Amino acid sequence: MSKSSQAGLDRILTLELARVTERAAVAAARLRGRGDENAADQAAVDAMRSELNCLPIRGTVVIGEGERDEAPMLYIGEEVGLGEGPEVDIALDPLEGTTICAKNLPNSLAVIAIAERGSLLYAPDVYMEKIAIGPGYPARIVSLDAPPAENIHNLARAKGVPVSEITACILDRPRHARLIEEVRATGAAIRLIGDGDVAGVIHTTDPDNTGIDIYMGIGGAPEGVLAAAALRCIGGQMQGRLQLNTEEKIARAAKMGIEDPNKVYTMEEMAKGDVLFAATGVTDGNMLQGVKFARDYIETHTIVMRSASRTIREIKARHQDLEKF
Ligand SMILES: O=P(O)(O)OC[C@H]1O[C@](O)(COP(=O)(O)O)[C@@H](O)[C@@H]1O
Prior knowledge:
Number of domains: 2
Number of helices: 10
Number of strands: 14
CATH topology of the largest domain: Fructose-1,6-Bisphosphatase, Chain A, domain 1
Bound molecules: 1,6-di-O-phosphono-beta-D-fructofuranose
Distance between the termini: 39 Å
Order of helices and strands: HHEEEHEEHEHEHHEHEHEHEEEE
Structural class: alpha+beta
Radius of gyration: 19 Å
């Protein structure tokens, strides 16, 4: 298929997205390590929004900073872009890992995913149980319906290594005490992370570099959709199940079109069609370096990807027009 006839979004947009996450990352990085999560988040939101509004799209934020009454900018339903061009759904997190940025710890990111209208799961801001592995494995070797030990053993068998050579990434939360115990009982190792499960999921796609083979556990549903969008571009497997454990959450989800509160979503159900994804490192991480402030320039490290072509680009940018930032 020739490039021009490849179905889906305009591929130029993929590269344009880098500018959006770069700007958000630089704004947040200026406040790295200051202990002020809100200030860093707000700076990233402002920067991402103003850059998004320069893109030739008719975009609607479907995963954003929150409901309209709680988030004045980049709220769910906000229309962004120049108001011309393709109609798209946008999932974004201008600062994924606000606490890690405030503490200047690894793996906080500025992230965005764009897909054709109606292609991203409109997930409410609740928790989601997730499981993810990278590319190159037979389909369905891991499942949210299987016990953790079975998933770990299946993965080790498919990878052709003893279970002791598998590492699972899990958010360090009391709610994961049992999961951690069950994974450790298999002999597998665990990388406990304080925050940032979008990075945690993406890290499964390059275990030789990141040391992570599988992501397991409960994190934010918005972050789950963003991670699924990334995996659609790189390859891999992911499932997510919303944690709709109260009547109020079930009703909120129903309003967003979710009829079965116990449904297990596949990666393709969370992000279908042609998906574009970009992430820029705010703090140094396993895959992306954080923003560097030099005397005469600012350096950013971004990954941009498109599912239709499966192209993955890394962009190291040196920004010399410092007034723009
Ligand atoms: O901290 P909780 O409530 O366990 O939520 C987990 C979620 O929080 C994060 O760690 C960080 O989210 P923020 O960027 O909103 O701070 C996500 O990566 C993760 O999905």
